Queue: 4 jobs
Job 1
Amino acid sequence: MRRNRKRQLHARVLPRWAAGFIVLLVTLVLGYWFMDSKCAMLGQEIRKHEQKYAALSDERVREEARWNEKKTPEKLEQAMLQHGIAMSYPTPEQVVRMDSAGTPLAGQLSVVRYQRNRNASERVAKAGPR
């Protein structure tokens, strides 16, 4: 007895090389899409960090201006008086400049004045008891 057998058709919709080409093309498109989205995400992150850097740079400039404003002689003197410190800048007679060997440089007002005072006190000290 004969069986009812279905005929099997061996029809190809696409040749193998065409299917391989389509799979390769889809893989490349998905890879490009992934890299594009990753680059866009990194670009947004870079822009965010650049904005943060600009904000911090502006803040640094503002703080530097505030600090420089506080370093003026008038502001320093006012701050010292608020803290109970009475100081003033030295006069030229109070400044002694030294060389690398540690000896005072000649011709300074402070050195000349010191020598005059020392000579005057020696004269008084030599007078001593009679």
Job 2
Amino acid sequence: MQADYAMMEELYNGLNLTVDNMMDKIKDAKDIVDKLNNWDIWDGNGYDAYRKKFDNLVSNFGSFCNDLYKLNNNVKISIENYKEVDRQSAEGLQNGV
């Protein structure tokens, strides 16, 4: 199977959508953890320790997702660069170069 522009753009868009969904899900998880701060659900001091670890995960998760967006942007840049090379090659062939 050979990659073409459409496939590369589909991969780029798919990864962005996946990361967007991951960011939404971590927000949903944060809302759930916030609701656990209730003596009827979680009594004792365990919640505070869990919350501290979860907050650390959330802050690192955002950085991780930002890195994925940046790396995925390289795919988009590559697509544009390849298109430009193809355009110049086609132009050169039309001009007899």
Job 3
Amino acid sequence: MSIKTFITDITTGIKAKVDNKNDTEENALVVATRPLKTLTNKVLFFSNPTYGIDMNKSLGPAGTPIHIHNGIDNVYWTASAITGAIRWDFNSNTQAHTGTYSIDGTTTLNGDESQYAKGSNQDLTGYTSLTGWIYITDWATLGVKEVQIYGWDVGVGLVGNIVDIGDYINKAIFNTWSKFIIPLSDMGLTNLTVDSIRIKTISTGGGAPPSYYLDDIDIQETALFLKYTIEPVDGTWLYVDQVNITMADALNTTLADNSMFNLSYNKFLGLSNLSIGILFQKIHEGEVTWVSTFHNLLDFLQIPNTNILTAGCDGTNTWFSLNQIFGSPVLLKSETKDNLTFVLRDDMDGLLRFRIGASCREEQR
């Protein structure tokens, strides 16, 4: 028994048609393919609320910091082990960023926690960031590996949010001191009060725990960073396909034989290798999901699918444009407050021009 069947749209009642090319071919449905979603091309520039899209800016004066701990080269806040007492050394002379001593966390295990207590309340009103230096000797890529840092109140408990120092540095650079600058807004500590800072080693899954030293941990009065961000407008998703980095500087890069541009791998044109580096983060639901750092031209170029698009020199000034194409589009959702952010942590005002644009596609939701 055969059953009479129609392919029909349940909303309009329109039936699909059949064609056989005037009986010259087998019967077949007449179909049309159309994109399921309509996306609008957009070009966005990473922008700062004070400086707009111009990134060749100075960070300004540092202000007066609150010193927390520097390996007891000086007596600041009191360090103690909450867990793993035999594995913390708060006065190690093996490594030091400044002075002679640092905090040694090289043998700490998952859950080992240390506290740095002022002994009284510290009002954070008017302060902007927590900074410090980390020296990594090992940081496995398997499982979850973190060095968490967060505000604490001895009588209350956690104040604000737990953040991972690893989200503010390049975890793959070993055996050298790297500076981290963590906005207090990321820690949920803006204008709040703490009496302690805590640090905890996290290591789950395969691989050894992070092995590290810490030094010169401070709370900064003046912002030592500038954030430049792109994000979707409300009610949209943004697909970011690539970014373009353009820089210009007063520098003659013409080789005598005109065979190529005389660009230094360890500089940004005439700007020397950055001591802290530019931070690139993706934020999803308030959490950092991936991070990169860039100290010089080669740090950008070592990323796959990154090329110098074009460059020029008039004998006095030189400019170039880098193109970084993502392996798959980076999706930013407005409802989860996603964004991409470049964080400047060094003075960039030595450049004549510095901007970063993004080629995007916007979907109405």
Job 4
Amino acid sequence: MGFNGIAGVVNAPGQIPWPIIAGYFIIALLIAGYVAKRKGGLSSFTTLDWVYMGVGGAFAVVWDFYLGSFIGRAIPSTPFFDISFVGRFLITMITVGVVRKFGAGMITTFIFNLLADLFHYGFGGEPVYFVYEALTYGLFFDMMIAATGGNLFAIEKPVGSKTTTYAVMLVEGAIIGYVYGAIPYSIFWLGFFAPFVYGGVVNWARIYFLLWAYGVSNIPVGAIGAWITYRIAKAVGV
């Protein structure tokens, strides 16, 4: 029996077993939160942080569904490049890079998803999309915040020499570019959430292709985005 447009399928051919998905989310959250607490990336949000996250989430919606869609009419969307997704990715990266506190990724993504439901999708399929968006796209950013102790893209303090600092910034950007750009949709959505919501067979050949294809564009976009985020964060003095 479905609920709010969710078929609830957990045994589709090729689908990742639900205990693996649930276990991953729980363990990843606990470990990331623990690491953030130990390394200094876990802090309370200020009013300004909430403003940044709210504006970032709202602007990501405006770009993804309006500006990006309009521009995309002149730039064909392919597995290698999607202007709407790239813009949303960069906006989220800049927002998280300015805040740099554990939870910023999940909250910004949650706000994006909420506003997207209000103004574009409607609330059919919820709360699945909140879980999917926040605990994949958002959590991957928060994992990086936890791993760096809040010094995401070396914004908080230099890492060795200036050259080393820029190298670390670019490498971190490339990593989050691949993780954010390739894994959530390919593994989590196509491998579990799409059949869970809509039913159907999982095509692992397509998943393997997209894991490679999305990395082609999103690795360099992530590196460039890290540099942009670094400059913006330094300019606003946060």
